[in-house]
Amino acid sequence: MKTIILFSIPLFIFASGKKLNYEEHNSLHTYNKRPTMKAKIRSQHHKLHKVNEDQVRVITKESTGEEVENMRLTHQGKYLIFRIQTKNYRVRINALDGTIIKKERIDE
After folding, report:
1. In the chain, what are the domains?
2. Pick from 82, 89, 86: which is nearest to 103 by CA?
């Protein structure tokens, strides 16, 4: 019984929040790795996200109590996420609805 619960926890974590639809997700994948195409994909990321950087900074501050040191917008699977690093935490926030996907403490 315990193993079923432990295996189901990641499903609940990744099942929360909005996902990219098929067309949006497909538009982010290209096999052309030239710098101009990478810039086009980055601009596509910024067109798709619904939560702006200021809101992400506020969510991170409320969650960790620390200021954002590094922020990067990327996608992972069908999720468009902000990868944030503070002094003591790494946080992943869904860029479509602002939910926290993952928060982990950095042990130095």
Report:
1. 2-105 (3.10.450.40)
2. 89
pLDDT digits (tens, 9 = 90+) for 68-88: 999 988 878 788 888 999 999
The greatest distance separating any two alpha carbons of the chain, rounded to the nearest whole angstrom, comes to 51
Task: Answer with the residue of higher pLDDT: 89 or 34.
Answer: 89
Q: Tokens in use for 28?
A: 């982010």
Query: What pLDDT is recorded for position 108?
Result: 62
Give the span between the Cα atoms of 75 and 62, in whole angstroms.
23
More confident residue, 26 or 78: 78
Please classify residue 83 by burial: count the beta carbons closer than 10 Å to its beta carbon, then call 0-12 exposed, 13-18 middle and 19+ buried. Answer: middle
Is the separation of the CB atoms in 74 and 45 below 8 Å? yes
Structural contact between residues 69 and 47, judged by C-beta atoms closer than 8 angstroms: no
Reading the block at residue 47, the tokens are 């067109």
CA–CA distance, 5 with 78 (Å, rounded to integer): 24
